Amino acid sequence: MRLLVISGPNLNLLGTREPEIYGSSSLKGIETLLQTKAKQENIELDCFQSNFEGALVDRIQQASGQVEGILINAGAYTHTSIAIRDALLGIQIPYVELHLSNTFAREPFRHNSFLADHALGIVSGFGVMSYTLAMEGLLAHLRQIN
Amino acid sequence: MRLLVISGPNLNLLGTREPEIYGSSSLKGIETLLQTKAKQENIELDCFQSNFEGALVDRIQQASGQVEGILINAGAYTHTSIAIRDALLGIQIPYVELHLSNTFAREPFRHNSFLADHALGIVSGFGVMSYTLAMEGLLAHLRQIN
Amino acid sequence: MRLLVISGPNLNLLGTREPEIYGSSSLKGIETLLQTKAKQENIELDCFQSNFEGALVDRIQQASGQVEGILINAGAYTHTSIAIRDALLGIQIPYVELHLSNTFAREPFRHNSFLADHALGIVSGFGVMSYTLAMEGLLAHLRQIN
Amino acid sequence: MRLLVISGPNLNLLGTREPEIYGSSSLKGIETLLQTKAKQENIELDCFQSNFEGALVDRIQQASGQVEGILINAGAYTHTSIAIRDALLGIQIPYVELHLSNTFAREPFRHNSFLADHALGIVSGFGVMSYTLAMEGLLAHLRQIN
Amino acid sequence: MRLLVISGPNLNLLGTREPEIYGSSSLKGIETLLQTKAKQENIELDCFQSNFEGALVDRIQQASGQVEGILINAGAYTHTSIAIRDALLGIQIPYVELHLSNTFAREPFRHNSFLADHALGIVSGFGVMSYTLAMEGLLAHLRQIN
Amino acid sequence: MRLLVISGPNLNLLGTREPEIYGSSSLKGIETLLQTKAKQENIELDCFQSNFEGALVDRIQQASGQVEGILINAGAYTHTSIAIRDALLGIQIPYVELHLSNTFAREPFRHNSFLADHALGIVSGFGVMSYTLAMEGLLAHLRQIN
Amino acid sequence: MRLLVISGPNLNLLGTREPEIYGSSSLKGIETLLQTKAKQENIELDCFQSNFEGALVDRIQQASGQVEGILINAGAYTHTSIAIRDALLGIQIPYVELHLSNTFAREPFRHNSFLADHALGIVSGFGVMSYTLAMEGLLAHLRQIN
Amino acid sequence: MRLLVISGPNLNLLGTREPEIYGSSSLKGIETLLQTKAKQENIELDCFQSNFEGALVDRIQQASGQVEGILINAGAYTHTSIAIRDALLGIQIPYVELHLSNTFAREPFRHNSFLADHALGIVSGFGVMSYTLAMEGLLAHLRQIN
Amino acid sequence: MRLLVISGPNLNLLGTREPEIYGSSSLKGIETLLQTKAKQENIELDCFQSNFEGALVDRIQQASGQVEGILINAGAYTHTSIAIRDALLGIQIPYVELHLSNTFAREPFRHNSFLADHALGIVSGFGVMSYTLAMEGLLAHLRQIN
Amino acid sequence: MRLLVISGPNLNLLGTREPEIYGSSSLKGIETLLQTKAKQENIELDCFQSNFEGALVDRIQQASGQVEGILINAGAYTHTSIAIRDALLGIQIPYVELHLSNTFAREPFRHNSFLADHALGIVSGFGVMSYTLAMEGLLAHLRQIN
Amino acid sequence: MRLLVISGPNLNLLGTREPEIYGSSSLKGIETLLQTKAKQENIELDCFQSNFEGALVDRIQQASGQVEGILINAGAYTHTSIAIRDALLGIQIPYVELHLSNTFAREPFRHNSFLADHALGIVSGFGVMSYTLAMEGLLAHLRQIN
Amino acid sequence: MRLLVISGPNLNLLGTREPEIYGSSSLKGIETLLQTKAKQENIELDCFQSNFEGALVDRIQQASGQVEGILINAGAYTHTSIAIRDALLGIQIPYVELHLSNTFAREPFRHNSFLADHALGIVSGFGVMSYTLAMEGLLAHLRQIN
Q1: Which residue from G minimizes the CA distance to J114?
Q2: d(CA D124, CA K12)
Q3: Which residues lie closer than 8 Å to C66 by C-beta, 6 or more apart?
Q4: Within an 8 Å CB–CB cutoff, is residue K97 touching chain F?
Q5: pLDDT, tens digit, 9 for 90 and up, residues J58-110
Q6: Which residues does chain D have within 8 Å of residue G55's beta carbon, measured at their own beta carbons?
Q7: What ipTM does this complex have?
Q8: Residues B70, B3: contact at Cβ < 8 Å?
Q9: Do residues K69 and K93 lie in contact, with contact meaning Cβ atoms separated by under 8 Å?
């Protein structure tokens, strides 16, 4: 089994950008943690980050037929990108929406998500652990239905 | 360490009520699962369900000084109860909001939550597993900060 | 055949509370009238009133498997209770929403109903007769489909 | 005593138009049923249908001084016609608003009614029976007050 | 010079409909008064009333090239008819919007007008005199610019 | 009989300010015209203009017991001043709201009026003639009821 | 194969009404053009225009079982008529919504359409050519599916 | 003379819950203070607190015919309970709405009150003193009118 | 200790203006009452009334360094004046907002207050007594904290 | 004559992505069809697709002075991109907005278009044929005016 | 060349009022600074401050024909005064809107400006320097076009 | 000291795109002007333009630790990009938002800015001079605080 982990704009700044909101781990660190966990679970994992909306759309499209599930932290694009929504719906692979921070504790324009209504599930507010909880939940779902 | 698991109105119907949305486990079954997991984690767990808004407020108040974290699936009261919000804020114990179903895939009046903006984190859409993921996330948070 | 008649908050005041809106019959009087009519129709009838939202939820849940239809005048909870809505949907018994007064002739906050979109039908504005018309309509529906 | 039954646009299609919403009776059939019932009640009944807003206004105006009550199913004009509202208010005859389907279970633009706040009562969702229940309710009201 | 006076739905009821709002003159009486005044002013006057939106549109269209100004009291259609607005704009003849009652002292849905923003002027609230004031204002305007 | 004519902010600029909207007459010219007309009608007329909201409130208060009707063109304060509204209601003298231009043909913030719902009548869009039409309408009303 | 072309209020003014928006062809001219094109395509064509909402509803109902597709330019009723919407849905014949002008380049109240969400397709802004493009598109669709 | 003092959800936590907002007095302390003051004023006082909406409704109903005025601090239910509003209106006893904190200095959902528009008066923001000021105001009102 | 009592537009009409809303006391009478009470409390009191927004701003500014608290009944300016709000915030002296009538029982545009969110407390609906209750509450607050 | 055909995000997936909405043709296939038609019409055609908003802006800018008309199916960016709107307006070349599906039959967020109000015309809902109809309409317009 | 500098309500408090928002310079100091700069630029400068909306309107009107440009910091009246807007438009002199603080970083009611849409330009957030930057920008504009 | 000047989508068209709005200078010309001014001020300046949202995010991130202030004219992305907002907040360098045109004199969708509430200051409407005024304001701010 293979999963894809997508991280959106400004997540490459993790560890340096507003650490009181996003914590002190770097994206590198998170991806290493996830790879370790993936090995234990005996699955393969692709990780991808970009600040470009179009690049995220491209990467999601390429996942078609290659992975069985997607973890996506689309950052600011969560709230503005119908293009990413369309890409996810276009390839019909289950995905989990995740956020490091609790988006409902922040500015009102972060309360809307173009990804939420078609997501398998949503996890937010647990910092780095949002990634691992989302991966657990996605795996459990996939193993039940495959 | 001791945690409290709160379930709100109609969750006592689990397993029989609209199973295509809520799954086929009973609340009893979920609580047994959580107790098993609690033993493994070496913690104590109180479980409480009520259809009364006032009873949920009472139970939350009594938790003051007795537990270190709360898992709350407030059901329909999530969307209407300022009283439960106030009770949770009044006792100042970290809590995780959880839902069996993905509330954003349902009616618009379920998109608003009076509990979300002060929650430690949110987990929704994973069925019974929403409870266990929420417990993991809460525990990890508490162990870091205590 | 057995039906349940539910009356919500402040309906126990009937006959004394704002008679220019609600008429001069007492709830007792209405229930006696309905029982008479039920005998003529050869059916059984349970009547229940409470000012507690949770008690109404409980009573609706207990109706599961016991009655074939519900007449509900939820009073003020019509406009605020998602819990009662969920209880009615959870047991999947057809129900008719009824009101003594015409709610659209009153304050704007009485124009919204959390029960209306799933009701079999709605009757309002006929005073005590709203109860008997609703019962006729419900019976006709049940006899057609059972 | 004489009553007027008004049916608005597209109700002449009854029995052929979207039967899963409106049922399989024709308007003819409904009017025959009502006439039978009228005879039993010893009253006279005028029935009128038109797809023209202006024709409905004309017909309502002519009822002034001729009938003692009106049953009106204004169909789509319920949601858009202030002119029909004004005609009903202008002649000051009590009227009951009725619908075959439960309008609150349908599109949002059917939730508004320009007739509801001045109606004696409202009946919706009982199919053909909405007509007969509305007639019963109206008669009971008129006999009490005349 | 020739003017057209248009009266919309339910204005044929004048004198009998809600006299506390609309006064006790009949439409006939108003039109006679206007004809007298027209003779004094040495102009010709056409008067037209209908309860049909389409008939009002037809009549406005026929005025093209025949009259130099229009007085329009569109009644309830003031608030709902884009078709009448389009007809008035299509023939490009100056018009005055008038109302017997002060529409801002009534229900909120009477505060919007689809005719107001392109009218030469607006007169409301003076009862029958709204017609004569509107005619004076329109004549003064036309005599200045022709 | 004595009337008061009130003109609000920037109306002292009439004749020089945006003549394509407000016409080329000065306020002086309008008041002379009104005085002539007043003499013909055998009434007395007080005229007052100020750019100060408070001065307008003061002047309206002083009118109590001295005049029998008010013509008010409150200019920009029409849309923002609850204080002027309160002054007019406080002295309980009938008033007509008037505007030189058609306010509904202009910016949306000019569509709201804090004076309209209690006015006897409204006249707008006829330039200087709005003043004389308003005076005619007010006089006719006062002579009928006194 | 037979098609129906429906034109709504004020389209009989074409060529004379606001030519900078609607162009200089008359409705007659457009219908002749469409008939020529229909002959080439070997189909029959019925054309109908009315300024009456009710007449349009009548004509649509009569089309049931007689035509295989409808081209509708409902003019101003596009934005206000639920009755026409209901008639089109009632007969279940595919239809194309068309407009001479680009409705989105005009007033906000022309941006809403009660017909659009159930239309096969929409064509607007090409003047007379909107009719012929709409006919081409409808024919292509019908020939594929019949 | 006898008054009733009603306190709603979470007010039993007073003194321990968020003291920077609600102050350090316990509800017990407040009630003792009020009883002292009542003795000085030579009146009787009943005090009641509950976290249940239904219990508050019950208690208000029982007050009918027993007390001459009510002081009510409905806490969070102020903003959500139509049932409590109906109970207060049903018994037709003058009441004062009070709050310890200034609700307008807090979250937007605390700015709406279902009790305010029928209250005799409102007092908020003075901490414990809100109770005593409200009592003074209520007494003065009652002594004037009885 | 010295306090300032500010009264806004139209309050100089007290006793003559709409007595069914504002009572029959004159402003003079109220100020005399407050001076008497001030003497008992051993404090000094300045009273000021104006119909000019600018004059109220001037007076509030002059209070800086001279008084320790302000009672303000800003009348209609409560709902429209950001300038008065800014003046109050600029001098940083605690103030109580007060109203003779219950503003929530009146027109919707009186439900908003630009002063409420920074006020120490709010008192409304007790007629003249609103002034004395507000003074008591303000004094109690100042004596505790000075 | 030369035209430009622009296709936005996810249109490169055509034929595989949700074929029940978008049909089974590939973008390649559509472009071949358009080139054939272009040859018949004796014009040249450039085709361009990208998932990047910035790349679409770049390509539109480069069209300045090179093409005489643009067909644009901006996909999801239709609803969110002011930058593409600005690019189209900046080069002042007439363009037609087109969509394969009927956007009004889909989610509400697809009902808004930042391109529509300045488009020459709009075609939607005809699948692949939307492209050819749009090209016909654009050509007819250009040949008339060049 | 001569310019006018207008400062609105509460700006006379500068240096003492909320210095963390508005800085520590007095209005006197700012005006001296501007006069120095004016001498260097060889222009004349009139400065005016008032807390009265009417006085600001008066002063703006007097500027007609006397100055060639206006710098206006209308303070709180920026957000509420249509009268000041009308005065500025009435004299048709270019003006720059300026603010010491960044109004978008403050309360929502400061985000609206009745002056912005007709201003030549806007400068905000630079403290005292907002005045000098605005003067530079205005001068550059005037020298180019005169 | 080093500053960064960022220009967003379509600004590379300056001088050719809609010159009546944006003026006739090219972006090249503006940047040369700014470099000259920078030399006079003895600072270094980096200039960057892109039509890609992601490229702008990247460039802002790289500025971290390299520049002391940013001038940003984000063009159309001002109104839609939360990603650019997040990038600016992430690196915590003061920035000034600037626009060539007065955005409040244009379409409503240009009135919202995702950058304004955290900007140091805002300058708009002065054409090219908006850049130089913004630079002056930024420099003055930086020199005061460094």
Answers
A1: G104
A2: 65
A3: C2, C4
A4: no
A5: 999 999 999 999 999 999 999 999 999 999 999 999 999 999 999 999 989 99
A6: 52
A7: 0.92
A8: yes
A9: yes
Residues of E in contact with F23 (CB under 8 A): none
Are the Cβ atoms of H10 and B85 closer than 8 angstroms? no
In D, which residues are within 8 Å of G80 by CB distance?
80
User: Count of alpha carbons within 13 Å of I14, Cβ hemisphere only?
Assistant: 25
Per-10-residue mean pLDDT for chain H, 146 residues long?
96 82 86 96 96 96 96 96 95 96 93 96 96 97 78
CA atoms of G3 and G1, how far apart (whole Å): 7
CA angle K39, K42, K47 (to 5 degrees): 55
The CB-based long-range contact list for G132-136 (8 Å cut-off, 24+ gap) reads: G132/G33, G132/G34, G132/G37, G133/G98, G133/J123, G133/J133, G133/J136, G133/J137, G134/G71, G134/G96, G134/G98, G135/G3, G135/G34, G135/G37, G135/G38, G135/G71, G136/J129, G136/J133, G136/J136
Q: Using CB atoms within 10 A of its CB, is residue C111 exposed (0-12), middle (13-18) or buried (19+)?
A: middle
Task: Check contact K-I (3+ Cβ pairs < 8 Å).
Answer: yes
Nearest by Cα to L77 from I17, J53, E140, H62:
J53
End-to-end CA distance of chain H: 10
In DSSP terms, which residues pair with D45 in a beta bridge?
Answer: D3
Alpha carbon of E18: minimum distance to chain F alpha carbons (Å): 18
Q: Give how far K105 is from chain L: nearest CA, Å.
A: 4
State the average pLDDT for chain E.
93
Whole-Å CA distances, L134 to K21, K136, L3, L105, L125: 20, 11, 12, 20, 12
Helix (H) or strand (E) holding H32: helix H27-41
Q: Is the pLDDT score of E145 beyond 80?
A: no
CA distance C126 to D122: 8
Q: Do A51 and L57 touch (CB under 8 A)?
A: yes
Nearest Cα residue to K81 out of K8, K22, K13: K8
Tell me how far CA of residue L139 lies from CA of A114, B34, L85, L96, in angstroms. Answer: 40, 60, 22, 10
Q: What is the DSSP letter of H107?
A: -
Give the D window 125-144 contacts with G, CB below 8 Å: none
Residue D123 pLDDT:
98
Interface mutation target, options E18, E26, E51, E79, chain D, most CBs of D under 10 Å: E51
The answer to whether L85 and L118 are in contact (CB under 8 A) is yes
Query: Is the Cβ–Cβ distance between G88 and G95 less than 8 Å?
Result: yes
Instruction: Give burial (CB, 10 Å; 0-12/13-18/19+) of H22.
Output: buried
- Among E52, E58, E81, E86, the strongest candidate for a mutation testing the G interface, having the largest count of G CBs within 10 A, is E86
Residue with structure tokens 């509900």? C72
Active site residue A95: no
Determine the Cα angle at G137 with ends G131 and G138, to 5°. Answer: 85
Nearest CB to D102; choose among C102, C105, C119: C119
φ/ψ of I121, rounded to 5, equals: -160, 170
Cite the active site residues of L: 22, 99
CB of I123 closer than 8 Å to CB of I132: no
pLDDT in tens, G56-110: 999 999 999 999 999 999 999 999 999 999 999 989 999 999 999 999 999 888 9
Residues of E in contact with F72 (CB under 8 A): none
**What gap in Å lies between CA H6 and CA H23, rounded to an integer?**
19
The alpha-carbon gap from A134 to the nearest alpha carbon of chain B, in Å, equals 8
SS3 K81: coil
Residue I3's SS3 state is strand
Please give the Cα distance from H6 to H63 (Å, whole number).
Answer: 11
Interface of I with F in 21-60 (CB under 8 A): 50-55
G1: number of Cβ within 10 Å: 15
